[in-house]
Amino acid sequence: MVNIVLPVDFSDSTDQLINGAIKFAKEIGGKLCLIHVAPADIGFAIGDMGFQYFPEVEQNEIKEELLRLNNIQQRVLSEGLECEHLLKQGVAGDIILDYAKEKNAAYMVMGSHGRSGIYDVFVGSLTKELTRRSPIPVLVIPVH
């Protein structure tokens, strides 16, 4: 089975990205390995008293993100594909590359949405980083 790493960020373009990844996985007989990387600072807030940590905020956010990952997994499974998922906190690029290595992935699928800069408008900053650093091919799916 060919493992395909699919990082998801739950942005507006996630549905388009999933559709493209499902199509690709069906074409090559692949298994989707979903990963979502949550920021390490979930639950922290800056206020009058400086930095404060609210563990209940972090727990609620993680629960919500796991639910979303489960929903995506069910969608992929309903298409007749194998699928698993992982949620981690930390630096997205490093964690995604480590996951791809752990899964012995043959491909990574990313979306082309960006956040800033003219290049990043067409190829998101994380996508740009991973296409540069990844030892495996990265399929970039145009999402708008």
Model description:
The chain has 144 residues and is of the alpha/beta class. It is built from 5 helices and 7 strands. Strands 5-2-1-6-7 form a 5-stranded parallel β-sheet, with helices on both faces. About 7% of the residues have low confidence.
Helix content: 40-55%
Structural category is alpha/beta
Share of residues in strands: 25-35%
Cα shape: globular
Q: In sequence order, what are the helices and strands, one letter per element?
A: EHEEEHEHEHHE
**What does the radius of gyration come to?**
16 Å
Present the secondary structure layout.
Blueprint: E1 2-7, H1 14-28, E2 30-38, E3 44-47, E4 50-53, H2 55-78, E5 83-89, H3 92-102, E6 107-111, H4 118-122, H5 125-133, E7 138-141
What keywords describe this structure?
single chain, 144 residues, alpha/beta, 5-stranded parallel beta sheet, two-stranded antiparallel sheet, 44% helix, globular, Universal_stress_UspA, UspA
Q: What's the short story on this structure?
A:
It is built from five helices and seven strands.
